[in-house]
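Quick one - inputs below.
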Amino acid sequence: MRFLSTHRRHPLAGYAVLLFGLLLAAALYAAFAPGKADADTATNDPAKIEEGRELFLVGCASCHGMNAEGIMTVAGGNYGPSLVGVGAAAVDFQVGTGRMPMAQSAPQAIRKEPVYTDEETDALAAYIASLGPGPAVPDEEYTDVSEISQEELTRGGEFFRTNCTACHNSVGAGGALPSGRFAPSLQGVSEKHLYEAMLTGPQQMPVFSDDVISPEDKRAIIAYIKNVQNQPQAGFGGGGLGPVVDGMFAWIIGIGGLVAVAVWLAAHGARVKKKRS
Amino acid sequence: MSTTSTPLKDTGVGKKAAGPVEWLDDRIGLAGLVRKNIRKVFPDHWSFLLGEIALWSFVVLLLTGTFLTFWFQPSMAEVPYDGSYDPLRGLEMSQAYASTLNISFDIRGGLLVRQIHHWAAALFMAAIIAHMLRVFFTGAYRKPRELNWLIGIGLFAIGLIEGFAGYSLPDDLLSGTGLRFVDGLIRSIPVVGTYIEFFVFGGEFPGELIIARLYMAHIFLLPGLLLGLIAAHMVLLVYHKHTQWPGPGRTEKNVVGYPMLPVYAAKAGGFFFVVFGFTTLMAATLQINPIWAYGPYNPSEVTAGSQPDWYMGWVEGAVRIMPNWEFTIGPQTISLNVFIPAVLLMGILFTVLAIWPFFESWVTGDKKEHHLLQRPRNAPTRTAFGVAGMTFYGVCWIAGGNDIIALKFNLDIFTITWMARVLVFVGPVIAFIVTRRICISLQRKDNDAILHGYETGIIVRSAEGSYAEAHAPLPPEKAFALTARPRVPELTAPVSEDENGVANPDGRKARLRAWAKRFFYAHDVDKPTRFEVEDAAHHFHDDVYPPHDFPDDFSGVSETGVPKQH
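Output:
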């Protein structure tokens, strides 16, 4: 402890304490932040539908109406849209990614820890699916990308670049949209939820129905996203956000670091004698 | 220096080398030139090394660029990719993109060299700008260095184009999008835009020629120009000798520093290796421009977060915040929405930069030679103009990344755009006023330190119980450095008529110039006079400053109470 006490007035001591505090806070957060869960498919079981209806009345009806018919605002706007015919896939996506129920009114619902368990999500999806025909939760054969062929992977990339990167960025890092809305990052999104997003077009996203992009092609796209995101990085990648981050690094790390060397080099001339004893 | 050393020609090495050296000197006669320059003196200051960062990163660019040319194929011919990167295998792409993928994945060390090359390019431009700002804010461009300033502006402009050409060569989705941006920029030039576009691209965008043409420019034409201009820049630097900060023994007629050999050659040479090593370290640990993630260029595709490299970011931003002003005259579309922020603004930036030294000398009427630098605070109006310019550039630059900022800070992209639209006009004005006042306050602070000494941080309690902070006189060297600046010139009224009452034919011009000079020097705080300094020294131990005897090497205490050391 001599080291600490003798260096407590060192010019860098304050920064060191600050850094330590930040690291400690980050470590505590990482240790206590809750983990993730995943949802499963819905069924047509009447008991499940009834269970879903009860959950719906408690957690969803205040915005979407007692019969999921939607609620209009006084001004004629949409307080909560009608859910008749959105299908099980939409519920599984919105509830399974934690977007619904929304924590607050915002330009866009954000991904967060799911409030409902997998079984509860299934029940909600079953209830909504019972209200009218809509897209169902996809079969596992379309969300399992482990057996994808080379040709499909390349084709998935072409589909991804043609239809998705304009908003979601080339590695799915996300992108900004008008008025506070955004295309979210695709990092860490499950295969099933990627598929459901294409199928149901949540929030700002267009719908890519099975007529537009076939289930096989959807699987190829998902395979490409997963493959690209699992590629090794050539060094720290800065989140795949492109040249803006590169420029920041060039100035802060590059010029900052070289100026530090320049200061050292200029201060230590051949004839500079150390004054300190 | 020791005077008893053996002359070089009498040492062992000298005797052996004498023959070949004489042979060489008889034929090329460099001895005189070397003898003259070997002891050339360079002053030491960290800010003088900013230009050196640019120079050395240029050398790194030449070395790594040569390596890359061994494998890069500047062709837009389509080939199916069969390299080792899975997600693109079998895809049709240009040879340029395929060969860049090969450099990245299948050539040993290729990815590292590519990343060194790209980082060095980003650093080259950043160092040029940092160096330019140093020269600007210290007034180093004043007579006799105006021409070297112009050469520097030329280097800056060519560096921009060179960087952009390199950014476009891999023919990936990002560089193609950048090319499309420049295509729009060219087309926005009224009347001749489309003709220039067809000339540059050999027809409709993207054509099949542009990569080969950019390649020629990128590896031959522009580096050649850069090399020539850098040589001229350096020759003029040697001819003018380096500027220096004022201090004891430093005048407008001498240079105080270290000789080229052995000190500066070692320092500068060492710095080259530091720059090369640092760039390599960055390239090894930080990913830049992962072209494989973007995919090959296809005009029907685009990716979110498409931005140019940072040095074109401000043009991108200016275009992003520009309102959509566009109209047609007959068959001509006039795209002011692109022409003003891209073409015109870039032209204005370089024109203003080029004109400034001559404009300032016209305003101040200063035709003297200057080899001593000015501290930014001692030219408040110039510094304020500089910071205003930086603010304008900075707002445009931020606007160029508005989507990334919106995404990462959960903001509304329209709000950022509108903020930038307002700030691009208001920001520079505020920055100008604030900077000028800060400079003037700092001048006052300097004067205060000269006259009343500096605050030691020691609080003294008097017998009556009052508290005061002890001041100590500045060390003479420091006081000298602070006062080694010219006096603020007298501002005289413009001559409106001569002694015979005849009106001055240049009356308007003289009035304008007098106004500009008054504006330039307004509120400038002059340094204390000799009388004021002597008077203050005489009264130093008055009751205002509690008498206190400090040891010679004392230089105050820090906030934590520890004595400071030089």
